[in-house]
Write a structure and sequence with these properties.
By secondary structure, this protein is of the alpha/beta class. The strands form two sheets. A seven-stranded parallel sheet has the order 1-10-9-6-2-3-5, sandwiched between helices. The chain is built from seven helices and ten strands. The protein has helices spanning 9-26, 41-52, 80-89, 109-123, 159-165, 184-189, 203-211, and strands spanning 2-6, 31-34, 62-65, 67-69, 99-100, 128-131, 153-156, 178-181, 192-197, 229-234. It has one domain (2-196, 213-234): Rossmann fold. Helices cover 32% and strands 17% of the residues. Bound molecules: 2-amino-2-deoxy-6-O-phosphono-alpha-D-glucopyranose. It holds the Pfam family Glucosamine_iso.
Length: 241
């Protein structure tokens, strides 16, 4: 694992965007696994700026998002579809048909998970999977549990996750109770994983995930088994390492 700690958010954002830009410059057809949440926003802002300067193109890339809330229409302001449009995918030259996200409003959610997995299989492997980290060690929406699932599946969100994400909704009770998420099997199959974590409130879980035992109680700890993980931390998130 290559762990890099940055003094400023700007340096961290530039490093994250630089890794993704470098990949797209050498492999314009790269398959990107993308994440939501507040953590990647600065990296997406930097990528949009690099794209605006004509230094990177997403025209031949493919994007797969990690997860989506169940019950939210794509146009809902708090859907992950909207998030991706507003922060990256709607602002660069990637064609919409190359952007994939599970549908949280599919009438048959199991069939939607199977559709997403077979689409992922057509591409074989994600080249770079960007990840944030939940306070309880979740990656995507793979919550701590006695067992974890390999493929895309329906999850019931932990109350702690719902309250952490309540800031994106008008009222806490509007946070959906369920989500569809890519499984840890798909995440771990990615060629490279870029884990980004910011803030003192994540220092403890960063330490557990990167240095603690490998356990399904902390899904991010499974990243210790992956051969090519780059971790970008601000100094607060890296404070206990
Ligand atoms: C959300 C997302 C995750 C994200 C995590 C951290 O629940 N499903 O993909 O990494 O929580 O969010 P944030 O970056 O806002 O702290």
């Amino acid at each position: 694992m290559n762990i890099l700690t940055f003094r400023t958010q700007e340096e961290l954002n530039k490093a994250g965007a630089g890794i993704i830009t470098g990949l797209l410059q050498t492999n314009p057809r790269a398959v990107l696994g993308l994440a939501t949440g507040s953590t990647p926003i600065g990296i997406y802002r930097e990528l949009v700026e690099t794209h605006r300067q004509g230094l990177v193109s997403f025209a031949k890339a493919t994007a797969f998002n990690l997860d989506e809330y169940v019950g939210l229409e794509p146009g809902h302001p708090a859907s992950y579809y909207t998030f991706m449009q507003e922060h990256l995918l709607g602002l660069v030259d990637i064609p919409p048909q190359q952007c994939h996200i599970p549908s949280g409003i599919a009438s048959d959610l199991q069939a939607e998970c199977a559709r997403y997995d077979s689409l992922l299989e057509q591409y074989g492997q994600i080249d770079l999977q960007l990840l944030g980290l939940g306070h309880n060690g979740h990656i995507g929406f793979n919550e701590p549990d006695a067992t974890l699932e390999g493929g895309t599946h329906l999850v019931e969100l932990k109350e702690s996750t719902r309250s952490a994400n309540a800031r994106f909704f008008d009222k806490p009770e509007q946070v959906p109770t369920h989500a569809l998420t890519m499984g840890v099997g798909t995440i771990l199959k990615a060629k490279m994983i870029l884990l980004v974590v910011r803030g003192a409130d994540k220092a403890e879980i960063v330490q557990r995930a990167l240095q603690g035992p490998i356990t399904t109680d902390c899904p991010a700890s499974l990243l210790q088994t992956h051969p090519h993980v780059v971790v970008l931390l601000d100094s607060e998130a890296g404070g206990l390492l």
